[in-house]
């Protein structure tokens, strides 16, 4: 079975490479939110963040920092958003991270929580659940 992410990460398809090492490939998104929107993909096929080795995890974050530095130098954005969508919210069947230069009034939104309850109680319960595993 073919994986588009594997093909992109391993240069089997043309991309505009920004950075590459033995573990990850970073290239411009073909449908960018803003100029400079970069994708980071591990070269090994993995679907989820939790499947990355420690070495791959470090390589992804090191690349995110490096790309962010380049974006700050070249495009002088007002900020940078780093995002990763997993599970059914991922548009590829291959782990990838977005590094997006942000500009004031660029239209990027993150909705407020739709949960209307006692946040303190809910947060305490969630923290207990997470600490117990």
Automatic annotation (TrEMBL):
Residues 4-109 form the HIT domain. Keywords: Hydrolase. One of its GO terms (biological process) is nucleotide metabolic process. The active site is at 98 (tele-amp-histidine intermediate). Pfam families: HIT. A motif (Histidine triad motif) lies at residues 94-98. GO terms for molecular function: hydrolase activity. It comes from the Bacteria. This is HIT family hydrolase. The lineage of its organism: Bacteria, Bacillati, Bacillota, Bacilli, Bacillales.
